[in-house]
Amino acid sequence: MRHSVIAYRFDLIISFRNKKLPRRWESFYPGQVDRLFYVYDEITARLLSYTYIVAITMRLRDTTRKIISRLEEKSGYPVQVLEDTDLSTFAVIRIARGNMPAHILKYKPITPPPVDYTICWQCSLALRLFEREPEQRFQIASSPEASQQLDKILYAPNGVASKFGLAKAQTDSLRDQLLQGLITHLYSVAVGLRVSESLTIDYPELLELETGHVERELKTNLEGLSDKVRAMLPREVFEPTHKINTAYALYWSQRLENPEIVNPYRSHGFEPAGNKLLQIFERVPSDAAHDYELADEWAKFLGIRDWYVWVKYERVE
After folding, report:
1. Are 206 and 120 in contact (CB under 8 A)?
2. 185 contacts 175 by C-beta, under 8 angstroms
3. What is the average pLDDT value for the chain, to the nearest integer?
4. Residue 233 to residue 11: CA distance in whole angstroms
5. Rounded CA separation 213/110 (Å)
6. Is the dihedral of CA 178, 184, 190, 193 positive or negative?
7. How confident is the model at residue 36, as a pLDDT?
8. What percentage of residues in the chain have a pLDDT greater than 70?
9. What is the pLDDT of residue 143?
């Protein structure tokens, strides 16, 4: 049985140049120790503090292990799957690059389990990057122009900063969160719907888990429609976010044969925009080579195309 992973984490102070690691790690990933085990922990680490990851066997479905293996083989990097109870979303994957020689997939424990569909979906989303030719691999990142635009919005006389009495550090942090959150949402929903389609076709055995995954996402998206959230977010972020959410709801209302899913967005007037995004989705070819085109077309319609740039993906040296 392949060793998929949960991780128990311990802070370990080590010399960055000291490549000696516990022998028992070799049993988990034979021949890969030098590449794997200096994963930088952004939260607790300082210059010489790194996360000590001890992998233990976790029973996953054969399909899940197969998809993890596909990502590892296609990208050339191992996948580390970690449980994170403090995660603000259901799951997130950080692609190996720079000084991080492994894909780090964090997920929040869910009730009821299992987490297989979430892991499969995240790995399949990452796979889309590696299905492109090396010279055509890019990742989405916020643009300097977007930060300037959002600063003007947040610091306006009637903006969030003055409305809630936020200090500069708080406002700047909010700006970065809103900006990164919106462009990540754009990409993960537009391309993520492609992922859902491919999982349905290629791995029909996951269908029994799909509905629960989608229903959790739909419920979370609905929470963002509340008056409290609307009051906290600038219109320039709130509206594109929920137009994207409407496209997601429209798509799954058809797949799940449940038209009522769209009602909350319809009542807020977002349905026409959601339909337009789905029309773009259906028009753009579905292969990974057109993922950036799909995200760009959505962004142009939403008026946020200048909020991000495509950054060339660089492999770990």
Report:
1. yes
2. no
3. 83
4. 37
5. 10
6. negative
7. 40
8. 80
9. 95
Task: Give the 3-state DSSP-derived string for the chain, with helices as H, strands as E and coil as C.
Answer: CCCCCEEEEEEEECCCCCCCCCCHHHHHCCCCHHHHCCECCCCCCCCCEEEEEEEECCCCCHHHHHHHHHHHHHHCCCEEEEECCCCCCCEEEECCECCECCEEEEECCCCCCCCHHHHHHHHHHHHHHHCCCHHHCEEEEECHHHHHHHHHHHCCCCCHHHHHCCCHHHHHHHHHHHHHHHHHHHHHHHHHHHHHHHHHHHCHHHHHHHHHHHHHHHHHHHHCCCHHHHHHCCHHHHHHHHHHHHHHHHHHHHHCCCHHHHHHHHHCCCHHHHHHHHHHHHHCCCCHHHHHHHHHHHHHHHCCHHHEEEEECCCCC
Give the least confident one: 23-32, 95-104, 148-157.
23-32
pLDDT band of residue 58 (cuts 50, 70, 90) is low
Judge if pTM exceeds 0.85: no
